[in-house]
Amino acid sequence: MNIWEVILAFLIVVLILVSLLSNVLVLICFLYSADIRKQVPGLFILNLTFCNLLMTVLNMPLTLAGIIYKKPPGGDQLCHIVGFLETFLTTNSMLSMAALSIDRWIAVVFPLNYHSKMRYKDAALILSYTWLHSVSFPIVATSLSWVGFHHLYASCTLYNKRLEDRTQFMIFTGVFHSLSFLLSLIVLCFTYLKVLKVARFHCKRIDVITMQTLVLLVDIHPSVRERCLEEQRRRRQRATKKISTFIGTFILCFAPYVITRLIELSSIVPINAHWGVISKCLAYSKAVSDPFVYSLLRHQYKKTWKDIINKMLKRSSINSSALTSESQSRNILQFPGLVQSPPPPKWVSGGSVQT
């Protein structure tokens, strides 16, 4: 292994550890908090979390083995199964992000009709479509033997070895990325830009009310006025930052890999082997960023973790106090002479009562 391969292997190890820890934390919060389970977006987050966990446990370690040994780990049969899962899980995670954006769009643009438009039944139907959509492409690829170990990406993925099927494989790959990456990106941009438009409209209304209030309050302290204006600026930037994070992480993680796959089909530009693995690592990094972008940095998840930690600390303090009292009682039973009797009262002297 050269230095580049060592760096890439170390990067994948870090991705596995962080992704496993962060997604397990999301799962624990979901199981612990009844409020999170009651919310409809929790179904989409749960589905996204399971996809990320399976990708972390199954695909990332085999890519690490592919970098080290430069051959399909576990044989061709295992590689076909892992390649099937890689295609399915990647598509499912993309569509889950699109479903979350649709949920936010309905909640912000149609707040009065949200509970009637987005129920558990509707969320289950959306998830059913994402699963059917995601599983259709790997089924077709597996039936046509278009799944195998790709040395450029050091992983089991979509791969065609037969020259006579090159045209059909190019069409299939283009349709696959159009209906997974491009479709999800269009949905993300449409819904979140609508959300941003509504958020800016509400910010303008709040800004007008704030400025009118500051004008009427002539005797207000300058520091209070400055804090109001600072909060006004933060309010304008908050929605933009969140939506930029949602769309930006999606493009940054998936776009390099998708573009590399499409350029690879043209055979016009040679692709460096290290770049192929780097683009694959960027796609894997979405499993690391999703728990923070969609879950762990939200107020409700932070509150849940505080409750879990406080509950654990209370239990540990109760257990430690119980162990202390138990050890003291054992010492009394084993060494009764070590326990001093309390001194007599001051009004008792020499066995007689003082008057």
What does this structure look like?
The chain is mainly alpha-helical and 355 residues long. It is built from ten helices and four strands. It has helices at residues 3-32, 34-38, 41-69, 75-109, 114-117, 120-143, 166-216, 222-266, 273-296, 299-334; strands spanning 147-150, 155-158, 348-349, 352-353. The strands form two sheets. Strands 1-2 form a two-stranded antiparallel sheet. A two-stranded antiparallel sheet has the order 3-4. β3 (348-349) and β4 (352-353) form a beta hairpin. α4 packs antiparallel against α6.
**Largest sheet, if any?**
2 strands, antiparallel
Distance between the terminal alpha carbons, to the nearest Å? 96 Å
**Into which percentage range does the β-strand content fall?**
under 5%
User: Quaternary arrangement of the chains shown?
Assistant: single chain
Report the C-alpha radius of gyration, rounded: 30 Å
Low-confidence stretches: 337-341, 346-355
- Average pLDDT: 84
Form type: globular
Residue share in helices? over 70%
Question: So how many helices?
Answer: 10
Number of strands: 4
Structural class: mainly alpha
Order of helices and strands: HHHHHHEEHHHHEE
Strand order of the largest sheet: 1-2
Subcellular location: Cell membrane
Transmembrane segments: 6-32, 44-69, 81-102, 123-149, 169-195, 243-263
GO biological process, one term: adenylate cyclase-activating G protein-coupled receptor signaling pathway
InterPro entries: GPC_Orphan_Receptors, GPCR_Rhodpsn, GPCR_Rhodpsn_7TM, GPR26/78-like
